[in-house]
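Task: fold both queries, return tokens.
Query 1:
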Amino acid sequence: MKTQEKTTEVATTEPRKQGPSERFAQMVLNQFAEHFGNSTLEQSALQKRLIQAYFVKLDMVLKTAELNRMNKPEQYRDSVAVTWQNVNMEQLAVDVMLFSQIGLNPLSPNHLNLIPYKNNKTGKYDIGFLIGYKGMEVKARKYGLVVPTNIIIELVYANDVFTPKKKSASNAVETYEFEIPTPFDRGEIIGGFYYIEHFYKESNRLEILTLAEIEKRKPKYASAEFWGGEKDAYKAGKKTGEKEMIEGWFKEMCYKTIYRAAWNSITIDGNKIDSSFIAMENHEQHQAVEEVVHEEINEKANKTEIKIQLPKAEIMPEIKQADAMPANGQELPRGENANLVPGF
């Protein structure tokens, strides 16, 4: 009797092909390890997702910037396309790794703005990392010496009733009273305040800013699109010599100014400073953040060419393994960007 031989087919499963954002995350890790000579550096799954968010956001930014470049009259158009092939990838990889460790998510509103700038020395685009007002809070919570439990931020209008109660011999806890008797007719903005709350209420702190003090923090070249006011009128990409009034977003800009001042007032703990913090500080010191943003807005809105050379951040020459600890990021949107990045 013949024994029937059974053939067993072994199912083979092909490895899942990496998406573009995953390849970008791997490239960042490889470039970072090569830059610092640390091949053992690892990323958590959370930080990898956060790095992938940088890819998704920057891919959108580059496409928008390239579209704006092509919409310019040819005589004003830069000859270098704003594409992945023309980005300084080595510096980008280092910056993405360091900023992602802080927990700044470019897909979260007002965390971080990514802006490409032409570097005339290299002929490529450097990427500016401009921290938003919500990013200031992330920074303070991660590196603060004494992190508050909450910060209340309010604008005060002419018809509001605001009564500060400062700390004194008869008042152990600094506080205030704030009423809005006519919520739909509050009048003009006359100032604002922020109130820092701590677990121990005796440490609570009230800071008051007049309208003049708020406007004093306005960038030197503040754009009328944001702050309102007069701006040069343009026609066919050229100045007409006339002015036009822009309403802007004055209320929102005043609020954001107080918000930045509040979280920027938190004392930094020297023991928490790492390479990511130093990279972030260098980015802020090497450029007037608000001025760069407004110049970028003006450049896009008016179709006139503005070339800005962004200095590279000075990164610590050595980085400890502890500095590579994953940051407390946020849950990111799922899904892959359909467009592939060359070389990843």
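Query 1 returned. Query 2:
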Amino acid sequence: MPKVLVADDDKNVVEMVQRALSDRGFTVVTATDGVEALELMEKDLPDLLILDIAMTRLDGYTIATRLRDDPKTSLLPVIIITARSQMQTFLHQHPNVKAFLEKPFNPLQLVEIAAGLVGGKKI
């Protein structure tokens, strides 16, 4: 089962994403802020990270940059979900960011993108 880490400080978004992915066979781990997300990744690197930009303690920009700059995580695929628009520049600076979904988003679209990014993993 592909393991996905969902990092967002909005409980409703976390629950919606967790339910959508779990229903389709993903193992989902959640974090409510950026610091918790990094701590969880240090313990067990997921197959995919779904990341909000605006979070407490550590924002998604900082996390994505740290992942990009670390050889151990530079290839970890990331999906950004955020209420902020105009992310094209950010996407070009972070090659591991594979998709951007603006809130509100369709959970089924997120599942399709996630499934495509974990490729050979069985879902």
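Both queries returned. Flag for query 2: The chain has a mean pLDDT of 88.
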